[in-house]
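A favour between colleagues. Tell me how you read the following sequence-structure pair.

===
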Amino acid sequence: MMVLKKRRLMGLLLLVLSGALLACSLSGQAIRRETRDLPPARPVALQTLPPQPTPTPLPESIYQEIEAEDALLIHIYQRVNPAVVNIDIATRHFSDEPIEMGSGSGFVIDKEGHIVTNQHVVAGAEQIEVTFYDGSVAEARIVGQDEDSDLAVLQVDLPPERLVPVELGDSSTLQVGQRVIAIGNPFGLQGTMTTGIISALGRTLPSRISDAGGRYQIPDVIQTDAAINPGNSGGPLLDSRGRVIGVNSAIRSQTGANTGIGFAIPVNVVKRIVPQLIAHGRATYAYLGITSDGRFTVAELGRYTEMPVDHGVLIAEVAPGGPAAKAGLRGGDRTITVLGSEVRVGGDIIIAIEGRPLRDFDDLIAYLVEETEPGQEVLLTVVRDGETLEIPVTLGERPR
């Protein structure tokens, strides 16, 4: 029985092995058949990249120019930053309200410890601290402030050797495209420097509302694309020699952050107002006593009604009893509609003051603020009914 079982087992194994070998043989034939049916292989051409050219080194003069520009900015920062301060204020509008904290920038202008900043930075302040570039802190007091120019002067009691004043420039010589540098404390980040150019000149910023309901303007404002953010207010705007040409004051933005449109009060206004604030605590301005619609120039109005000239200041109204009224200047006598707005026309057109031609109302404001004072007599060139007149006017003091 054992022999039969072994034989049967051996026969079964041989049968299985034969089947396996047959399967392998058939599979090999199938593989060979499939291989024979494939199309012949074709050689593949490998794509090669063209050799990359070796970059040509820049001329040494280019590197020298770049390094010279770097050195210039570094020098300006090292020289001016010690004069720039961070201003922290505490205000309380009512005794039962919590104290509010605010901050801004400023800069030292003399060895007596006077610091220039914006009026809106320190308005209503109960306590003021200034932090210098080296981290030292000093209490400051308000010497004078002027809402009309948005300027204020603080003072700290420090030894003269601790103070590094800035150098003031001349804003009347500025050109659009000129390089500018701003140093300040945006978002509390002390000692931040940014650069840009002068984007435009002769802008105006609104200031205090007059008793008559109009709004006074800050003239000759500098527009720049140098990054100016909250906390930069009151800091200096500098030229390429490190001289102050303006006081950073405002930005135009939907979010409150820089969008490339910043404004600075020109240094020539600073030089006119700050000495008054130091001496008297307030500033006075010459006053003519007229209103003019600054929305439209004389040239623009000439497309809607007859105008004898294409430039100047069209007087809309004359303040009763004011300097212009006493000199016999005339306001408008009728109203026209321009782009949906009513505009008073028919009044005198001032085309020059003291022989200086006027393009528009902004030019007149700039001259009155920067070149005149109350009680001064000026000669106006006026066009009335097609006739050119020379009319002297004694300027008054701008109402508070």
Observations:
- Confidence is low (pLDDT under 50) at residues 1-36.
- The chain has seven helices and 23 strands.
